[in-house]
From TrEMBL:
Top-rank taxon: Bacteria
InterPro entries with a match to the protein in the record: BFD-like_2Fe2S-bd_dom (IPR007419), BFD-like_2Fe2S-bd_dom_sf (IPR041854)
Positions of the BFD-like [2Fe-2S]-binding domain: 2-49
Organism of provenance: Zavarzinia aquatilis
Pfam families: Fer2_BFD
Protein name: BFD-like [2Fe-2S]-binding domain-containing protein
Amino acid sequence: MYVCNCNGLNRRAVDQAIADGARSPGAIFRELDCKAQCGKCVGEMRGLITACRHLDAKGPAPCHDHVHAAPAHYLLAAE
């Protein structure tokens, strides 16, 4: 599944960036050597980051669970 169509970022790449320490959409883009384009993916990325933080608080668990953020009703800045 693609998280960012503009940059061709799939869920696996975004999950790996989060697992490597990215804690904001901007950090994910930097980790993956690209920049936010239209911003439609930012809400999804924030949801994935939040889900990973929640799992981290409960103990070791992969950040790759199928979690879908609520769709954003407006565009958000990358940071």
